[in-house]
Design a protein that fits this description.
By secondary structure, this protein is α/β, with parallel strands linked by helices. It has a single domain, classed as Transcription Regulator spoIIAA (2-Layer Sandwich), CATH 3.30.750. About 35% of the residues lie in helices and about 30% in strands. The protein has 3 helices and 5 strands; from the N terminus they run ββαβαβαβ. It has a 5-stranded mixed sheet, with helices on one face. A hairpin with a 2-residue loop joins β1 and β2. α1 packs parallel to α2. The protein is globular, with a radius of gyration of 13 Å. The chain starts with 11 loop residues before the first strand and ends with a strand.
């Protein structure tokens, strides 16, 4: 099976792939008010694909993401809230790969991991 998520290009670049039960998402550039609607659609499709493909994990690579505003970050919070509402047999984990040079990622992802301790892992 293949991942049915369109690649996003522009100030925010987003792409995804699926292999061995894991969806890998790469984000680069800037996630802000200008790109929020595209970002929301992209993450919504990833959510749907994770369920359709019975993914065990979604890896979100943020190492090339320079900036994310609070509105876009809230999309991650909503995504985790949606996963928490799923039947435990269909839940999957989110694994964030962060860039230690972007201090905002460390702070923001630490807060996110506290919101869903059982669902989130963060590596830099």
């Amino acid at each position: 099976m293949s991942l049915e998520v369109s690649t996003v290009t522009g100030p925010l670049a987003a792409e995804g792939a699926f292999a061995d039960g894991v969806i890998t998402v790469r984000l680069a550039g800037c996630a802000d008010a200008e790109t929020k609607s595209e970002f929301d659609v992209f993450i919504e499709k990833v959510q749907g694909e994770a369920l359709r493909l019975a993914a065990t994990k979604v890896t979100v690579d943020l190492r090339e993401l320079e900036f994310m505003n609070s509105s876009c970050f809230k999309t991650f919070v909503s995504w985790l809230a949606n996963i928490r509402e799923l039947d435990p047999s269909t839940q999957y984990r989110i694994h964030f790969l962060s860039n230690p040079e972007h201090h905002w990622q460390r702070r923001s992802l630490a807060a996110l991991s506290c919101f869903a301790v059982d669902l989130v892992a963060v590596d830099s």
